[in-house]
Amino acid sequence: MSISRLSFYGIAITTLLCGFITSTAVAFMPSNNNAAVANSRTSSSSLQMTLLTGNGKKVDVPAGSPLKNAVAKLGIKPKYSCKKGDCGSCTISVGGSRIKACVGKVPPQPRLKSLQEKGLEVK
Q: CA-CA distances (angstroms) from residue 81 to 31, 94, 101, 116?
């Protein structure tokens, strides 16, 4: 090989490496678009709270959280037998719907404004 070929290959490899290094450096630098996406994620992922009422108490709990923990905050103690939802002894009424407390989740906030203010009644 001649010296001109070696210098050509050396320049080509150097150019490729410099391009690769700068492109990877740019990939890890924060940009305004990434910050906007991160801010939108945090604002849109706010928890939807559901107001539950029972025994004269009102409690805000996250929708989708375990119902047994939510009713415990209200002071309601459902009876448990199997703790898997098979027997139905833990069934309670939440806003008129019967839900098994041991396996059920807190329902989402109702859309009616009157129910949002009063909260879902737990019996």
A: 55, 20, 11, 33
Indicate the pTM of the whole model. 0.59
Tokens read off for 85:
């939802």
What DSSP letter does each residue of 29-85 carry, written as one string? S--HHHHHHHHHHHHHTPPPEEEEEETTEEEEEETTSBHHHHHHHHT-----SSSSS
Q: For every one of its 123 residues, what pLDDT tens digit does the chain have, with 9 covering 90 and above?
A: 555 555 656 666 666 555 556 555 555 555 555 554 444 444 445 678 999 999 899 999 999 999 999 999 999 999 888 888 899 999 999 999 999 999 999 999 888 888 888 999 998
Q: Are 64 and 105 in contact (CB under 8 A)?
A: yes
Grouping H, G, I as helix, E, B as strand and the rest as coil, residue 122 is strand
